[in-house]
Amino acid sequence: MLLGLFGEVGGIMAAAKKLKREGAAFVGYRRAVEEEFGDALWYFAALCRRLEVPLHEVLAAASSEGYMCLVAAADDPPGAISRVSSPQPSGTFDEVLLSLGGNAAHLLVLTKQAPDARARLIAFADAFLRALNAAGISFAEVASANVRKVRGRFLTPVLPELPEFDGTFSEEERLPREFEIVIRQRSGGRSVLEMNGVVIGDPLTDNIADRDGYRFHDVFHFANAAVMHWSPTFRALIKRKRKSDPVVDETQDSGRAIVVEEGLSAFVFSHAKTLAFFEGQSSLSFDLLKTVRQFVDGYEVDACPMKLWEDAILQGYDVFRRVKRDEGGIVRGDRNRRKLEFRPLGAV
After folding, report:
1. What's the angle, vertex CA 253, arms to CA 252 and CA 257, rounded to 5?
2. pLDDT tens by residue, the chain, 348 residues
3. Cβ contact 130:164 at 8 Å
4. In angstroms, what CA-CA distances link 52 with 44, 55, 90, 285, 319?
5. Long-range contact pairs involving 241-249 (C-beta distance under 8 Å, separation at least 24)
């Protein structure tokens, strides 16, 4: 936990260094720094909980001396007032960041029995708040964004609350609620897809000297369609693009969205190859899932939580391994249950 906190503080400093070096060219600065601050706050809150020191008491003690205080009326409970504290400028941006790093280092040797444990926590909280102020970032934005991120990563989604994306469109423009795809391997190692007895798409090979099974990668698009309710590639294959809405057709279902999904599939596949295609895994790394989210930033599927992405990827690779082993099979997608299933060719 302490190493995690120290690492996130290092991430804050690295992002700040990029801003100083690249200036306006570092477009993602604010978002990157907000995320690093949020992750550091998560570790710090966990540390306070482990040391049995209430976080709100630490923050209250940190935001007293050297802070400007405003008092305002509050709605709840009746007769309440609220105090808003903000740190006063205290040195250059570099000096503030170095102070944050130094206070993080002081926590590395912290133990529950340490007589100055509370004082060290307060000192770090003060440095953290001053760094937020120097970076021009809202504490509320950092905290709320991190809560959304953590919930999306670890909490099992409530299926009825997940987005549909095409629920308001006609049947002809929706991904099917249930679908079954037959995958066969023909001579020359080409895979062919059939849906309702009709060949869809083009025959595929691995397109690499190492026969790694990528010819069956359409399975990942089927997983996206079944679990995420999203797949511009599958929409194009079965001609279910939402053409009745020109904006949706252009921005969500056309060329660039298809390229994004294909690129995402190739990226995750390269990672999966080094991990036996996720065999035996029940979870994925946070870094991988964050990269997946970056891939789809700006597209409708960005509304889906990381936990759902993890489920879609793991289900997709479970089916992929079986298709690869059998050199074909029958893949069934069920959007209602958000499930992708496999059975061998010839099975009833």
Report:
1. 70
2. 888 898 999 998 888 777 777 766 666 777 888 899 999 999 999 999 999 999 999 999 999 888 888 887 877 787 788 878 888 878 888 899 999 999 999 998 888 788 999 999 999 999 999 999 988 889 999 999 999 999 999 999 999 999 999 999 999 999 999 999 999 999 888 999 999 999 999 999 989 988 899 999 999 999 999 999 999 999 999 999 999 999 999 999 999 999 999 999 999 999 999 999 999 999 999 999 999 999 999 999 999 999 999 999 999 999 999 999 999 999 999 999 999 999 999 875
3. no
4. 12, 9, 30, 29, 45
5. 241/173, 242/166, 242/169, 242/173, 243/173, 244/169, 244/170, 244/173, 245/169
Cα 232 to Cα 100: distance, rounded to the nearest angstrom: 45
> Hey, how many other C-beta atoms are within 10 angstroms of the C-beta on 167?
8
Question: What residue spans of 136-177 are helical by DSSP H?
Answer: 139-154
List of residues 6+ apart from 97 with CB closer than 8 A: 12, 13, 16, 131, 134
d(CA 308, CA 310): 5
User: What global pTM score does this model have?
Assistant: 0.84
